[in-house]
Every structure is written in structure tokens, then in C-alpha cells.
From TrEMBL:
The gene is LOC101899144. Translation factor that promotes translation elongation and termination, particularly upon ribosome stalling at specific amino acid sequence contexts. Binds between the exit (E) and peptidyl (P) site of the ribosome and promotes rescue of stalled ribosome: specifically required for efficient translation of polyproline-containing peptides as well as other motifs that stall the ribosome. Acts as ribosome quality control (RQC) cofactor by joining the RQC complex to facilitate peptidyl transfer during CAT tailing step. This is Eukaryotic translation initiation factor 5A. Residues 64-132 form the Translation initiation factor 5A C-terminal domain. The lineage of its organism: Eukaryota, Metazoa, Ecdysozoa, Arthropoda, Hexapoda. SUPFAM superfamilies: Nucleic acid-binding proteins (SSF50249), Translation proteins SH3-like domain (SSF50104). InterPro entries: IF5A-like, IF5A-like_N, IF5A_C, NA-bd_OB-fold, Rib_uL2_dom2, Trans_elong_IF5A_hypusine_site, Translation_prot_SH3-like_sf. It comes from the Eukaryota. Keywords: Elongation factor, Hypusine, Protein biosynthesis.
Amino acid sequence: MLCFALRKNGFVMLKGRPCKIVEMSTSKTGKHGHAKVHLVGIDIFTNNKYEDICPSTHNMDVPHVKREDYQLIDISDDGYLTLMYDNGEFREDLKLPEGDVGNSLRTDFDNGKDLLCTVLKSCGEECVIAIKTNTALDK
């Protein structure tokens, strides 16, 4: 995608990592040519901050990011999650995430809450990035 066509809250590859754009600014064209775009992005898996500057007419790689919600069934002793698709199939290949999301997921699950996990998938990596209480079963 052309650099000037990128937008805040969109996705872009910075330093080889899939990032969400949190800040963007464009400098004026200089004496010798192109306007430059300054991008600041947060890695969607590690929350690391990356910055890059590129000419506005250059192409930037944009990752294909897929977002899916799964119902949390169980957390194993070794930290793997048992998640259920909408169609009833299970997957047990994702680990409990580090940090605040993992801590609140563990706490809410231990308190008996019915949870939905939001999983982002991009560039061969997958990670639980958010949780919410499943309200569909309360009705």
C-alpha cells in the first residue's frame, strides 16, 4: 500500500513486525522531492513501539490481520487455553497471554465467568489480545 494511503488505527509492517498505527505525520516536500511520512506503530502481539519514516510515494507492506472470537472452555495447568469455535470445534494451541490480559483472563475464569477471547492472527502468529464476558448465554 502506498505510504500516504495508510491511516491511523490501520495496520502496517514496521521493522518486520505487524503493527497498529497509533500516530502519523507528514512533512512537506523538500527541495529535492518527496513528502515524508513519519509512522509510529505498536506491535499487535508484543506491544513494542516501532517508528519509521518513508517517502509518501513508497509502498509499505500491510499485514493481513484476522480477528476471531472464541469461547474459553478451560485453562490447563501448563498455561494452554481450550477454546471453542462457533461451530463447536476445539483448539488447544494458544498459551495464556502475558501481562494484564493474561492475569485478568485467569482471574475472571477462576471466578466462574463465561468468557470470550479475541484472537488476532497475522504473519503466522496468533495471540489472545482481549477478553470480554460472554453475554449471549445470559438471555
